[in-house]
Structures are given as structure tokens and as C-alpha cells.
Amino acid sequence: MVGKKDIENFYNSKKIAVIGVSRNKKKYGNMVFSELKKRGYDVIPVNPHASEINGYKAYATIKDIKNKIDAVLIIVPASQQEKVAKECVDLGIKMVWMHEHIMKGVTNPIALAIIANSGATLITGFCPFMFMPGSGFPHNLHKAILGFFKALPK
């Protein structure tokens, strides 16, 4: 079960890789990446089809990043989640937030199990924007609704 402390630890990470950053600025992965950058996080974009995203060097896989990664945010389709989860585990990543879609959750339970069984902290089931420091509307509204229904991490 995801705890409030897990989410705080994720956002206290020094270097975060975002796997699934689109080149399209209107796509979710790019928006999350951009917001993290705007808030001063050291964020690294990962996309196998791009050498740069929003002016930053992009990597084809997380395995190509030479510097230590403290946390990973995975935003890829279900068909790619298992492969990406294995890469994270192989690299010893200990903090993983897997998010596919706000209305679907994560639809690849094998990918979730790979990360959970590795001993890494796994955050899933919540949109990263809801907990990102400084997020405003509509993300704070989504968080308030979950709070009203007592569905926020404790």
C-alpha cells in the first residue's frame, strides 16, 4: 500500500528519470517532465525515439543514463511496462512511480509485481500531479476529492 511518506520520499529525490516522455508538449509524459523541471528537479527524459526533448538530452532507455538515478516515473503503455520494470529492477532503482492513465490505473499487473517483488518502493494508483509540490487546479481538486472520500495515502 502506498503511504504518504513514500510520496514525500519520491519528491525528495535528487535525480528523477521520466520514462515515456513524449516530444509532444500536450502529452501527459511531457507535461509531467516539464512541470518537474519547472519546479527545479533534476529530471532526465527517456524516450527510445528521441535524442532530445524540450532542449534536454533524452536517452533511449534508462540503462543508457550514466549518472545515478534516485527515482523513476514510468509513463508507458501496458505493453512496455514489463520491459521497463525489469530494466529498473536490474539497475537497482529503489523508488518507482508507475502511472499509465488517471482513469485506468496501471493495466499490467506483472510489471507491478516485478517492481514490488524487488523490494523497491512502488507508487501507483495516484496521479503524480496531485502530490507534486506547488500543483494547482485541477490537481489540487482531484486530491481534495480523494481526501473527502478518505482515499489518500496515510
**DSSP, total strands:** 7
- Write down the Rg: 15 Å
CATH superfamily: NAD(P)-binding Rossmann-like Domain
Oligomer: single chain
* Average of the residue pLDDT scores: 91
Provide the CATH architecture.
Answer: 3-Layer(aba) Sandwich
Query: Could you give the distance between the termini?
Result: 9 Å
Strand percent estimate: 15-25%
Main β-sheet, in a few words? 5 strands, parallel
- Shape by Cα distribution: globular
Structural class: alpha/beta
Element-by-element helix/strand order: HEHEEEEHEHEHH
What's the number of domains? 1
Low-confidence segments: none
Broad CATH class: Alpha Beta
Helical fraction equals 25-40%
Tally of contiguous helical segments: 6
Question: Could you give the order of strands across the largest sheet?
Answer: 2-1-5-6-7
Explained architecture:
- There is one protein chain.
- The chain is α/β, with parallel strands linked by helices and 154 residues long.
- It has a single domain, classed as NAD(P)-binding Rossmann-like Domain (Rossmann fold), CATH 3.40.50.720.
- The protein has six helices and seven strands; from the N terminus they run αβαββββαβαβαα.
- A five-stranded parallel beta sheet has the order 2-1-5-6-7, sandwiched between helices.
- A hairpin with a 2-residue loop joins strand 3 and strand 4.
- It is globular, with a radius of gyration of 15 Å.
